[in-house]
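Notebook entry, structure prediction.
Reason for the run: the old model in the group folder had no record of what sequence produced it. Starting over properly, with the input documented here first.
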Amino acid sequence: MREKLLVKMAHWHAAYPWRMTVIAVLITVILGGFASQLTITMRTQDLLPEGNPQVDQFNRIVDEFSTATSIIVVVQGEESRIKFFADDLAPRILELMDGSQNLEFQEEIEKLQNKLDKLKNNGNRETKISELESEIAYLKKRIDMSLFQRVDYKAETDFLKEHALMLIEADDLKDTKDLFTDPNLTGLITNINNSI
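New structure, fully documented this time:
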């Protein structure tokens, strides 16, 4: 079957080279149009099925808790310039707002508000009304939502200076003590070897 198809295509290419070139160009243009619509996202949520209640809850957790996602920015250069850059950049990052979905949220709020008004006028169930009100409140919080909740660019060393040894487990503390008992190079290497 496959061999017959390949022989047939070879015959068409040999017999009608211009027609086959036009067909190949048309197929390339059509598939190129589809390929231009492809997007790549680096979010875990995009790998999960849409409309699944568990996925919706996961997305809510990511939206509401700042530690669920993070971005790390690495800067290279002179120390003084890096510090100046970080001090200048941190407030700007915190001011960034996500307004890309404001229109969709506004439309959804209007639809929910209309449903809510109808339910209130008809004197329907209080549970449904409270669900709609909480959904509207949630969507209102998402309008012009801050992209970043926190920027960590300075390490809080005071706490670690005071409490670092209390955070280490007893066995690790003993190993660390043994590691630094001999500050000479041969002793240090021997102690590192022993701890491994």
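Summary: The longest helix spans residues 102-122.
The old model has been moved to the deprecated folder.
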